Amino acid sequence: MADITHWADVVADEVLKKGKKHRVATGITPSGHIHIGNMREVVTADVAYRALLDRGAEAEFIYIADTYDPLRKVYPFLDESYARHVGKPLSEIPCPCGEHKSYSEHFLEPFLVALEHLGIHPTVYRADELYKKGLYTDAIKTALKKRDEIAAILQKLSGKTPADDWSPFNPLCNACGKINTTRVNGYDLDAETVDYTCSCGDRGTVPMKGGGKLTWRVDWPARWKALGVTVEPYGKDHASRGGSYDTGQAITKEIYGYEPPFPIVYEWIMLGNEGAMSSSTGVVVSISDMLKVVPPEVLRYLIIRTKPEKHIRFDPAQPLLNLVDEFERLHQMDDPGSYESRMIELSHAAGLCHTDIPFKHMTTIYQAAGGDFERIMNIVERAGYDTKNRKCIKELADNVGNWLDMYAPTFAKFSVRDELPVQASSLSDMQRTFLSSFADILVDSGELSGEDYHNLVYSANDPASELHARMAAALGAKSGEMKVEPKDMFKAIYISVLGQQSGPKAGWFLSSLEKDFLIRRFRDAAGYRP
RNA sequence: GGGCUCGUAGCUCAGUCAGGCAGAGCGUCUGGCUUUUAACCAGACGGCCUAGGGUUCAAAUCCCUACGAGCCCGCCA
Prior knowledge:
Blueprint: H1 7-16, E1 21-28, H2 36-54, E2 58-65, H3 103-117, E3 123-126, H4 127-133, H5 137-145, H6 147-158, E4 169-171, E5 182-188, E6 193-198, E7 203-207, E8 212-214, H7 216-227, E9 231-235, H8 244-254, E10 262-266, E11 269-271, E12 275-276, H9 287-293, H10 296-304, E13 312-314, H11 318-332, H12 339-347, H13 359-368, H14 373-382, H15 390-406, H16 429-444, H17 450-458, H18 466-475, H19 486-498, H20 506-511, H21 515-527
Parallel strand pairs: 1-2, 2-3, 9-10, 11-13
Antiparallel strand pairs: 4-8, 5-6, 6-7, 11-12
Helix pairs in contact: 1-2, 6-8, 7-8, 10-12, 13-15, 16-18, 16-19, 16-21
The protein binds one RNA strand through helix 7, strand 12, helix 11, helix 13 and helix 17.
């Protein structure tokens, strides 16, 4: 297809038909670690926002943290002491680590930091502050007045009949601090107060300002109007018929007289083959973990390359390498106006830090250097890469190191063994002879480059070479008649250094190791007969 | 039971809105790079577009049905 329009631009075009001024909103409840799945919502919104700006729209981007939602249960990552906080708004619960202002800030703060890294800069609102400031007061009054109409909408669209004592407003109990245990008994529109009884036995009166919260199905449409939201992505959990977008759409039109925002429904992110990512099942990769491992652009790219309504299969092990590879390749293409370059634009995050070293290559450099940064720099320099941007190389090396620690499959890992690997006992006579002759030559030679090592290994099969001659002499064979398989020689090297049959490109790999070490190791291996 | 979304090469996905020759990357294979296993370059292989029906001069694309996957319908992001 010659002309592919990125989905974000399609969305922008669609949205622009409705007007030039837009406010893109997104909201996540900080009830637990905010993971890659949640990130899809924010990145989706950000990309739509950027596309709107690029098309000349007057656009804003806001993020509402639902800090006023009650804690639903004691999550697996919480200790039992949190049982008494179940039902209280997240903003009113103590922080699990004691270092943040509240429970919600504990989870929100790292998320906001991650947003910065991802180049996402929304205006951040906290729901508890909005309620306490009175932003929702009008909406609360309307909702209380039109309680029956709202109940009828919910009944009609979702098929569920709200209980007789149902109210769109959930008061916050003065005594126990819970928000989901109270019942509304009455209200005073002039005084802006609501009367309640609580299952804890308390009864009293709370202000509409900060004394409670609209139930979710009403809170959402009320927020659209109060904040002027015109575009909002949301997970498919809200998207089914009778779901909260459906009822919200009706409530905002019929109760609040406001047009619902343009919907962008997005699918879940599946983790490897463990299923959908979700905090409650514990199938979670947190954003900060991911940022330890890959640059933010790659994370954005992961989300941007797939249309929102398709699910994304995400696997932080081997497939992550392919993703990075693909991104790096894309990055090198320079074809302005193409679909590919549009994706690069949309992947753009905060302060670009670029090196020309591929992630994949760094995984071998890193391991050859045993993770030591000075040695990494030496290898990088010898390999001919640009070493001016030391900080970026350090970032890349850190990412790679974390990836190797956290996610790398075993076949991608190797380590230079401190002791001669026992596998050396399986070496053939030919291989042993090769290793010892190879070591002898190393003793007499100066510094060898990667290519020198490479050629030296192959020279074993060249009758005119010194290596070949030495091997023939040692084996008592005639020079021209000895047949040497380079493949087996490579194996001998890998076995004696790594204890495995294969490894990274032999030439530069050997050149990244100390020559004295190689001589010693090859001689040990050649003579190893347990 | 009702609903939403998805199903395209071995894998990950574009292309479906607006019908017009079936696409990309990865993997695999072959060749090249002075002889490389996990660098690089070139090429090839690879498809009943989940299945069946319908509309059309023409369908991966639109309509209906079935199957498969995931999720929602419990006021629970």
